[in-house]
Design brief:
Order of helices and strands: HEEEHEHEHEHHHHHHHEHEHH
Low-confidence stretches: 1-28
Number of strands: 8
Distance between the termini: 77 Å
Strand order of the largest sheet: 1-2-4-3-5-6-7-8
Number of domains: 2
Number of helices: 14
CATH class of the largest domain: Alpha Beta
Mean pLDDT: 90
Oligomer: single chain
Helix content: 40-55%
CATH topology of the largest domain: Rossmann fold
Amino acid sequence: MNTNFKKAVSIICAVLMLIPFILTASASYEAPFDNSFYYEEGAYTLHYRVFKAENEKAKVLMIHGFGCSTSTWQPIAKQLVDDGYTCVLVDLPGFGYSTRETEVADEDYRVREELVINLMKSIAPIKEWHIAGHSMGGGVSMNIACLAPEIKSLMLFCPCPIASMEGAMGDMMSSKIMGVMANFIFEHLTKVTPLLRLVALMAFMDFDFTMDYDLSLFSAPLQIHNTGYSNMITSAKAMPNDFTEISALKMPVLLVQADKDLVLTDAMKTQVDEAFPNAEKHTVSGGGHLCIENHDEELAKIIDEFIG
């Protein structure tokens, strides 16, 4: 009896110790919004949200930037849906409420651009889609346009080119040491409200908007366990932009930059600008890197005029 009792206590203790990890893992897959959906492929689960227009005149797939999620596109999606645009906002692997790359074995790894293309195809033919990408999502969107040139248009907002991380750099980025450091930053420093508010101010370049902003929209997905480590793996394995191929794209392109962007360097802006000499170009006056949130009315109008 004494031996059995000890075994029972050991099992109960083990289960109790696992509960936090079970809850953390499942948090990634609970529907966080009333318009949340999931696309499953292999070891991946992509979270996406649908803002469905009643009298649809176009479909727009929206891709967020590094450290962000579907919430960054929500303000513009709410503007566009009333004008007849069905907007699909997707969380890339490692972000928002999608699969963390730490959950995926090397042999099950999928290129995120192909996952997004397959998600789009699961909803409607690829030729029906317009694609909008912000920051890192702009780099991903350019890759998608190369892989699926039949899309209707490409819209880039403060796009960040994606560089290759091969060899020692890639190994270092995806190492467990970097993972532990990144997890600490994402899971703990995002709970320091003054620090997070300062980061938001630098992103929005709008004091009043930043002070009223619900920081949990940004911090909650980042605090999901292994988000930091997953981001390091994703960055190390990311498909780099081939600007020779990108400059040969034929679909209509909208390129939007912000004059107070503290993230993109002049060289980054020039690289994208020169790749699209015939693009329709706009500059958001007073806009920071995350201008898609606090300049939503202005940008929704630009998108409507560009597509319409």
